[in-house]
Amino acid sequence: MVRSRLHQLALSPKFVSHQFRCIHSEERKWQSVAAATAAAATTACAAAQENLQPMNTFKYSDTIVRLAEPHQLHPKPDAAGLQFGKLFTDHMLKIEYHKRLGGWQKPVILPFENIVLHPAAKVLHYAVELFEGMKAYRGVDGQIRLFRPDMNMERMNRSAVRAGLPPFSGPELIKCLSRLVSVDQEWVPHSESSSLYIRPTLIGIDPSLGIACTESALLYAILSPVGAYFSSGFQPVTLMADPQYTRAFPGGCGDRKMGSNYAPTIHVQREAMQRGFQQVLWLYGPDEQLTEVGTMNIFLYFINDNGERELVTPNLDGLILPGVTRMSILELTRGWNEFKVTERKITMSEVIRLQNENRLLEMFGAGTACIVSPVASIHYKNLVIKFPMEEQENPIYRRLERALTSIQYGRVDHPWAVAIS
């Protein structure tokens, strides 16, 4: 009888309403607690990130150099057979950050070695990391130069802020990297078709599974002698444009150089290659905006509605990585003052219309790894959009490649090229 009475009570509307109010009240309480916790964590990260100009940073003058023993040195490769990112030099740079020890520690240049990480390190679980891509070039005069390293440092610090990693002094890191290149200067190829790739990387190494700003980090840099980025060399590439795939989205971190932007693209790149194409043209949104091509910024050269020649690249709206080569191309071509240069949205419908009206001239990608890479065609749904670059007497992409490499290899004197003493 008691059990039956309890069953009736449980089914009564009054009891159900009371229970619902209790559950709902409890849920609201826990939502408030969760919101407060999240807000506190966000505030803590924001407070740390506001300090973009670090009060504490490492100093080049404190650098410790430990040279490799003779038996640790490796033979230098032939520049003609270099592949991208397959071979590494004898030394590396490591700089640790520990909040409990006051922040950044002394930079150390040491023999190339493996990195040991705790299994709970944040980088392994939450992709708390970022990287940069730079190059050192051996000029025609034998001098080794970096290309606009200050821009890489600015971008690296912006990425650090977004990832909850500690910022640092860009000029001090440039000095440290220059010293590392100087130590391994024999690895800088004596060739104008090769260079020494520099990969600074910053990772969170906290041995903790909590999602929060890191209190321990490791900044390290490795060097790799490289040849052409594409195995085909300086040849036009074919692109797959499939609207079902998106590289970045508004409010995300597509404009930061983080590994989390690149891992999801590997599957799509493999699909493109299986379908006979070399790179992916990344589209975004219902209007199918062109954003990037592979890991490069994209440029389109055409005859506009006013009959003018125009060079366009997507504007920096949060979807686009602010490339160093991209900015250099914009500054160079604006200085030429030969055609209109614009940063704005480009859509597939516009590209198709330009093709139908025979107004397309060139398309090319641009980035540190490849410098400039011409595009032969875009394969979009059932359409093939071809670019008549072979019909251009002196195509823009070749002029840009010559202009940029002339600066990088010291054929012309230019403030963008920073000499390493």
From TrEMBL:
Q: Which UniProt keywords are listed?
A: Amino-acid biosynthesis, Aminotransferase, Branched-chain amino acid biosynthesis, Pyridoxal phosphate, Transferase
Catalytic activity from the UniProt record: L-isoleucine + 2-oxoglutarate = (S)-3-methyl-2-oxopentanoate + L-glutamate; L-valine + 2-oxoglutarate = 3-methyl-2-oxobutanoate + L-glutamate; L-leucine + 2-oxoglutarate = 4-methyl-2-oxopentanoate + L-glutamate
Does the keyword section mention Ligase? no
- InterPro entries in UniProt: Aminotrans_IV, Aminotrans_IV_CS, Aminotransferase-like, B_amino_transII, BCAT-like_C, BCAT-like_N, BCAT_family
Q: PANTHER family recorded for this chain?
A: BRANCHED-CHAIN-AMINO-ACID AMINOTRANSFERASE, SUBGROUP IIII AMINOTRANSFERASE
User: GO: which molecular function terms?
Assistant: branched-chain-amino-acid transaminase activity
| EC class name | transferase
Q: Which domain of life is it from?
A: Eukaryota
Q: Which residues carry this modification: N6-(pyridoxal phosphate)lysine?
A: K257
SUPFAM superfamilies in the record:
D-aminoacid aminotransferase-like PLP-dependent enzymes (SSF56752)
A single BP term in Gene Ontology: L-leucine biosynthetic process
Q: Which cofactor does it need?
A: pyridoxal 5'-phosphate
- Does the record's keyword annotation contain Amino-acid biosynthesis? yes
List the GO terms this entry assigns under cellular component, sorted alphabetically. mitochondrion
The residue ranges crossing the membrane are none
Question: This protein is called what?
Answer: Branched-chain-amino-acid aminotransferase
Q: Which family does the entry's similarity section mention?
A: Belongs to the class-IV pyridoxal-phosphate-dependent aminotransferase family.
* Enzyme Commission no: 2.6.1.42
- Pfam families with a match to the protein in the record: Aminotran_4
